[in-house]
Amino acid sequence: MSLTRRQVTSAALAAVPLVGRSPERRQRTLYIAGDSTAAQKFADAAPETGWGMALPFFLRKEIGVSNQAVNGRSSKSFVDEGRLDAILAVIRPNDLLLVQFAHNDEKSGDPTRYTEPWSTYQDHLRLFVEGARAHGARPVLATPVERRRFDADGNAVPTHGDYPAAMRALAAREGVALLDIEALSLALWQALGAEATKTYFNWTDTEQDNTHFNPPGAIAVARLVAQELLRTRVLARHDVVRLHQSIPTSWITWPPAS
To answer: What is the pLDDT along the chain (258 residues), one digit of tens a residue?
Structure first.
């Protein structure tokens, strides 16, 4: 039996839960579409922390954060799994859709996730931009946060190839606000140095993870995101809080895995 497009879409929306969406809608919601670097983590993954978990600490309480980032997703697989459709089903005028992908778009050996920077990557990002605008929401593109990688001379090394440049070009062409988290995080890792950055990434007694963050790292990256939201005037000055304050790592919590 073949399914209609409407039936397929309805099934996709039913199968994709919206994590962090409150039954009582706040005045304005910022939706995050992204990968594991931003995603909500649960108790079985602690101390791994997505920067999206820390972003609410830098926004006034009237701005809700609905973190829809999911481990392992690329711009392509996020769309193909119906996750963008799920966001667009509930997003409202004046909401924000913050989009950060590239870590998994780079996986050339996986056709379900791979995109080419100057063609299919931009094509999929455009779906997020056009989808948000069609619903009266504002799209925001964020270049991918950098991994922890240093050369023999102690210089922080970029790891995302042409993907950040492709996103910057698309943002300029489409008139979309761009948060240059790739450049800012690379500069931050350079300033901290190879050893100090270990305290920002998910380095434990059993794991040396140079991609994902622990609470201090997630808070640091979320601060960069909030600063960029303010710099680009996506948010007003009164929307952003605690930019220059220390955020206790105890504020990070990992709910039980459902």
So the answer is: 333 333 333 334 444 555 444 444 458 999 999 999 999 999 999 999 999 999 999 999 999 999 999 999 999 999 999 999 999 999 999 999 999 999 999 999 999 999 999 999 999 999 999 999 999 999 999 999 999 999 999 999 999 999 999 999 999 999 999 999 999 999 999 999 999 999 999 998 888 999 999 999 999 999 999 999 999 999 999 999 999 999 999 999 999 987
Q: Note the pTM of the prediction, 2 decimals.
A: 0.89
**Structure token digits, residue 30:** 């910022």
Is the CB of residue 141 less than 8 Å from the CB of residue 178?
yes
The letter for the amino acid at 39 is A
